[in-house]
Amino acid sequence: MCQNSADKIKNLHEYLSGLGSCLVAFSGGQDSAFLLFHAREVLGDNVTAFTFYAPYTPARDVKDVISFVRRMKIPCKRVKVPLLDSLRYNPANRCYLCKRYTFGMIKAGADNLGYSRVLDGTNADDLNEVRPGINALRELGIESPLARFGISKREICKWLCERKEALGLKPASGCLMTRMPEGHEVSAKELKRIDMAEEYLATQGIHQVRVRSDGKTARIEVPPENRRRFFDEEFLNSVARELKNMGYRYVSLDLDGYKKGNMDLS
After folding, report:
1. How many domains does the chain contain in total?
2. β-pairing verdict for 22-25 and 118-119
3. Which CATH number goes with the domain that contains 50?
4. What is the value of pTM for the model shown?
5. How many angstroms separate the CA atoms of 58 and 60, rounded?
6. Residue of 45, 32, 226 whose CA lies nearest to 142
7. Can you point out the beta strands (E) in 2-43?
8. Mean pLDDT, residues 21-38 taken together
9. Do residues 181 and 265 touch, judged by C-beta distance below 8 A?
């Protein structure tokens, strides 16, 4: 039987109540914010957020984490992690390697804080996509209640907007290594440059953006509805000038628009 959103949230609350306490892996995006909000509502002070930031974490995601937990008065443990040697050449299984390492840290943090359960914000739609990192979560025993109770991305966005919890929230920007080709050598300098370029475009009102980089060329991807912004010659010139000042030799716009996994070979 197909459940409505209210029934799914009721099931989520019953599940959370049975935990007594938990630690929630928080990226700053809508999915994990939705989960963290409900965990806080059900468990009160018996929930803690845990987030990590690395050279490949967009600066705006870190800002969103800090803003949300402060507004919700939720304790948050933040841990800085290095660029792992195993990720140096941007392997196809980077998501698995990253999550295996970082969620291993989160589990250790949960043990130190006295939490027996670690939750993450994987939603039901994520199970239909190619996401190698989910295997790492399963291997580590991380629980994904949104996926378990069939809560979709659309339902999450609708619920957040109806309750005005969407203020300041957006889908997490994702790992900056996804902006580079698989097999490309990753450097902290290049990651920072990609982050700066996307941050600049966000200041121009384009918040869902990817700047794909091979080291010389910045290929800008935006949602189809934002492509018309680039019809303005003055805007085109300013974007090209800003990104070239960051060190890019060429600046281009992907005419197809934003698409997940555009730099992956597989």
Report:
1. 2
2. parallel
3. 3.40.50.620
4. 0.88
5. 5
6. 32
7. 22-25
8. 92
9. yes
